[in-house]
Amino acid sequence: MNAEITIRALAALAQEHRLAAFRLLVQAGDAGLAAGAIADSLGVPASSMSFHLAQLGHAGLVNQRRESRSIIYTADYAAMNGLMGYLTENCCAGVPCTEDAGCSPAATTERNAA
Amino acid sequence: MNAEITIRALAALAQEHRLAAFRLLVQAGDAGLAAGAIADSLGVPASSMSFHLAQLGHAGLVNQRRESRSIIYTADYAAMNGLMGYLTENCCAGVPCTEDAGCSPAATTERNAA
DNA sequence: TCTATATTTCGATAGTTATCGAATTATTGG
DNA sequence: CCAATAATTCGATAACTATCGAAATATAGA
Asked: Strand C closer than 7 Å to the CB of A35?
């Protein structure tokens, strides 16, 4: 994780609808959510949501997979952990004051995490 | 920490010079750094840096104090911790998978933290 | 008070980002 | 192949953000 990637991730999250969408996906776990479901849930037009999901994808914060007619988005926990790490790695003059600011999927469906 | 404040903090950090400045301040600890020192260090004109520092201040990520002719900026660790908390609090369907994503000052100068 | 130093505010300009309807592409079932 | 569903791309517009020199403000010392 370098400055450029970090900035892209921060910029991606620094927007009302994208932050809300990302949080929905973080909660959804591996199951993820379809683009349309996210748009409906947030009351945002499909084309606008598509634009925002593309930004999150470009920042590496979400992944997508096709499932029949739907595109299912999932949060990329590794990317989120990398972001957290970058923001804390120089914390307190290089002395790491937190080793795990981590997060892994599972939970929701209790299935075996990737 | 709510969505609006989080977005302001994320937006503040999502900029090359501001992210760099914030990281310098995180490393500097309580001692902080003067506006001019940051500008010099990053090779950014004083007026531009002032604009960026104001953004960080408005987002609550840094504090400032006057010391003679200089304005000393310091990182606000509480705000940073709040940001981290907001980004992880809904992680894995509400099950907290990390309790301390925290960071406290001290370290650099080893003096008693405020 | 005058001068030097440190920083911020102002103002103009260029670049980037968000918005959303309409058109387009992809998939499925009959 | 046709109709229905799901999502993306396109295009125009409005709003916001970064930039930096010049001018203004604040502090300190002689």
From this structure: no
